[in-house]
Amino acid sequence: MTPAFDEEQLTRREQTLEFARSELGSQLRDHDRTSTFPREDWHRCGAQGILGSHIPVEYGGQGLDAVTTVLILEALGYGCRDNGLTLGVGGQTWSVQEPILIYGNEEQKQKFLPRLCSGEWIGCHGVSEETSGSDALSLQTTATKTDGGYLLNGRKMYIGMAPVADLALVLANSDPESGKWGVSAFLVETSSPGCSRSEPRAKTGTRTNPMGDLLFEDCFVPDEHLLGGEGIGMSLFTQTISWERAFIHAGHLGAMQHLFERCLKYAKERRQFGQPIGNFQSVSNRIADMRLRLETSRLLMYKVAAMKDAEEDAGIECAMANLHISEALLACATDAVRIHGARGYLEEHGVERQLRDSIGGVIYAGTSDIQRSLITSLLGL
Ligand SMILES: Cc1cc2nc3c(=O)[nH]c(=O)nc-3n(C[C@H](O)[C@H](O)[C@H](O)COP(=O)(O)OP(=O)(O)OC[C@H]3O[C@@H](n4cnc5c(N)ncnc54)[C@H](O)[C@@H]3O)c2cc1C
Q1: CA 370 to centroid of ligand 1, rounded, Å
Q2: Residue 128: CB within 6 Å of ligand 1?
Q3: What is the band of 88 on the pLDDT scale with cuts at 50, 70, 90?
Q4: Which of 45, 126, 177, 309 could make a disulfide contact with 156, Cβ separation 3.0–4.6 Å?
């Protein structure tokens, strides 16, 4: 299947590429070194419409389909070297805005989506906790009913963008006796009394995307901010995470393309033993593998996006896309370091950063092990 994109899709891709190249990531090396969130770049993405690509126009977005949105995020990942920023944009798009779009009532959509699309607000997705990672719905955070709302208590951990987020979509249990069927979803403004955000935690990669904890101590959340009704958490999580697990890696396609082109060029230019290193089969085999991973990743991603637009069930395809694309980028980044030799290992060339940035992809939105077990369970094993 070779996807055929229409004129508008190709134009949007080109515009994003041009924008990302010229306006984003100018201080990336410093930001990576100091783990600084590029807030101005975030606002630029908002002004460019990238934060609202998949959101209907009436809620401040661009009203684009999933295929076009994926092309935009791919172009962002190609034109902008800041993988932390790309991850933040993808995370907000698929794990905060999308659930609000699907499960939110009119008031919630009007209140939150325009602010998120414009970049005025930053959204994060609070699910993981100390004792519940892969087994996400065994979470311990509680939501106790009180007059006019709920009191949240608990701690969310490893939350991307939490230290800078204005809004958190939080899963908490409003009926612990019912186990995971008691999980509900809440839209929590992080300025609410009883809600605090930790400082960013030092981490391996995507350092421009600050990760931290959200702490809730009798944090009052009004009834109007319950998303989709009590006990909806499990279906919200399984439905929206299914798409998120694929689309969160759309930026990876661009990063992979960039790595591939860079390695191909280097293999032609770098000479050892009197000839380009690309003449050595051990190097050229790596380039061939990179190209193959890029091609197969694209096909899987575009297929999933087309299935979303056609409103088809894509459980297996989403898990395969997550597994394949995250592992493909990690393998490409490892190959890129090897191909560049010591240059690949030095911070100043940016190749090692790509390797550090790639590692998280095989963990977030479900580890590779979890994707494999999802695929096999959907196959009836
Ligand atoms: C960069 C990054 C960003 C993140 N952003 C967010 C965020 O925004 N919001 C959020 O809520 N969370 C976020 N997370 C957390 C992420 O969702 C969890 O790390 C992930 O779900 C795995 O949970 P865990 O780290 O507790 O590992 P564990 O679940 O403890 O797993 C440890 C190991 O055991 C394996 N394992 C566990 N269960 C099984 C099983 N059933 N079968 C086979 N193997 C298994 C895992 O594959 C892994 O290798 C982020 C993580 C990273 C790295």
Answers
A1: 9
A2: yes
A3: very high
A4: 126
